[in-house]
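hiii, so i know i said id send this last week but things got crazy w the move. better late than never?? heres the sequnce for the chain we talked about at the cafe, plus the structure i predicted for it. fair warning i was half asleep when i ran it
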Amino acid sequence: MVEEERVSEMRDLISAYPTLASNILWSPDIDDKPAALKTLADELGDRLQSVSTEKEMKPNLFERIVSAVKERLQPKEEPKDGILIFKEGDQYRWITRYSNNFRDRDNPPEILSAEAHRNFVDMVDKGLAPLPELWLWHVPEWKIGQATWVGYDEAGFAMAGGYFDKGREAVAEWLSTKEDIAVSHGMPPKSIVRDGNDPS
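okay and structure toks below
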């Protein structure tokens, strides 16, 4: 098997992970979801390692892929602690810093202006835009919570807070044990207005 085929096989393994994780999260037959997700992640790591260690594979390709994924998920411009999860009474709640007005590391690099963030908060406050939902991996079917407020602080960070949906307590508990959760937000493409002088 040539290197390109191995890379393709690794990509296939990685792309299947969110669907398998979703099946675990929403399955009523799996009681210990965090343990099942850990087992799935361990198996994915083992399978990726197996593909990467074939003798024809160029040295360090696996490490380069892992490094690229980590870099993409955790940009250097932002701290890792993007969400705070806590329990109030019998309900899990969250507060997140989900965006900012700094240039990101996407391809191409983009920036959301402070004005755009303020405008969004104003629209939500006036009822012209809905409060955001909390999703896993930007997948609508993986909704786990609902925002009850949004805000923007003058240090350049967009904030939101809300609660976890009923039945998603195990997800909240599992996420609360993680130290490197990255949070971002999605927008309908039709709502995006580019700066005529700088389309990024």
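btw The radius of gyration is 19 Å. thought thatd interest u
miss u guys!!
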